[in-house]
Amino acid sequence: METSLRYGVDSKSLVIHAKEKFPLTTFTHLQGHAELDTKIGAPTYLSAMIRQYFPDQFASLAVGVQYFRRQKLWYNVRGKKAFPVTADNSVNFHIKGKYDVDEKLLEKKTSGAAEFTWNVMDVKKDQDVRFKVGYEVIEKVPYFQIRENNWTLNVNSNGKWKVRYDL
């Protein structure tokens, strides 16, 4: 199980996030997520999705369901495709999209992004760094991410930020 501590500009408290992947076939797994808000002491987010990988095409597709404490139940479809820029795959261009619909099929949300990632392995002994710069197409918001082993910092041009520490 992957667990992390998360805190951001929108938060009023620290959130404990957990993710688990259950293999179904070689390139398919069931993925579960949960978040526990430390201020209220209750789950605020639960998710389950089936994700199919297409390694020869550097792509994945997922369908699932999400439960938010305030927004209730949502169904979603996600897709992601990578285009290697360098021969060693250290630099990639990604396109990704997401479509969500509420439980009554009335409210819909879409998002899509294009981003470049640069993975720098062994900056120092046992230290890897990833830089990501992207653009959220629907909301027209550029963003940036830097990740160093267990630490991740996300920032966008709207002034939103989030810090994550993987345990």
UniProtKB/TrEMBL annotation:
UniProt name for this protein: Outer envelope pore protein 21, chloroplastic
* GO cellular component entries: chloroplast outer membrane; etioplast membrane; pore complex
Q: In terms of domain of life, where is this protein from?
A: Eukaryota
Annotated function = Voltage-dependent rectifying anion channel that facilitates the translocation between chloroplast and cytoplasm of phosphorylated carbohydrates such as triosephosphate, 3-phosphoglycerate and inorganic phosphate (Pi) depending of ATP to triosephosphate ratio in the plastidial intermembrane space; in high triosephosphate/ATP conditions (e.g. photosynthesis), export of triosphosphate from chloroplast (outward rectifying channels), but in high ATP/triosephosphate conditions (e.g. dark phase), import of phosphosolutes (inward rectifying channels).
Subcellular compartments: Plastid, Chloroplast outer membrane; Plastid, Etioplast membrane
Task: Give the matching InterPro entries.
Answer: OEP21
User: To which protein family does this belong?
Assistant: Belongs to the plastid outer envelope porin OEP21 (TC 1.B.29) family.
| GO MF annotation, one | porin activity
